[in-house]
Amino acid sequence: MTDDRLVSRAARALVDESAVEMTADGGGLLEIWTIGHEGGTVRASAPRLEVREGMELGCRLMIDGTPHRIAAVVEQAEFQSQSRAALVLRVVDVRSDGDQRRSARVDVALSAAVTAVVCDRLVPGETLSAVLEDLSEGGVALAVADMRVREGDRLRVRVRAFEGTIEGEVRVMSTRGGETAGTLVAGCAFLDPSPNTREIVTRLLARLSAPAAAVADAPGVREALGIGADEEPAPEPAPRVAPTPLRRPGIA
Q1: How far is CA 56 from the centre of its chain?
Q2: Taking the domain 106-209, which CATH number applies?
Q3: Residue 109, SS3 per DSSP
């Protein structure tokens, strides 16, 4: 049974978000506006025609710095307006989701291009600029200046690195607010990456994870060119310039 204090913290986390994308028991996504809470009970609202009493809702949120899966049940759903229903949600289960990531992530900062494939609010083919914030064998974290990205979206990501181009489809597994206003960080999992992408990701992670000493001991440009410590590279030949033809006096 979930601890009452953890349930209360989960309810508080829902309210702190103000607007939460929650997965309904039928598999659809609903945007729930959270208003306040008392213990494990949350006052909220949702699209009137999309909710009903007894519906189960779920989402993934950070609690005390750790990702958790939160499950709630709609205890009351009453008319609020033509478009909204007033809800009373009861948090029924909270579980740590910290072991979801199967591979270690490495911080990175690379420019990325993101294209919508199948999304809730993005038009297929719409492109967004993003920054790759971290990388693992299993996925990426993308910072985007677009709040329309939602959990469950499928995106195509393209990132150019020294090792090559990482390109393939990902699914958004979680979202959180970015460090600057108006930005969102999407935690994504790779969807059937190609062997080439896997190889590039592995090589990039190896380089980023290499100890500083290993980087310092890596061959430099001079060693790679076979130039000794006391040797200087042979100077490049001066470019040949065609001589200017002489003109005889008096001849135009």
Answers
A1: 27
A2: 2.40.10.220
A3: strand
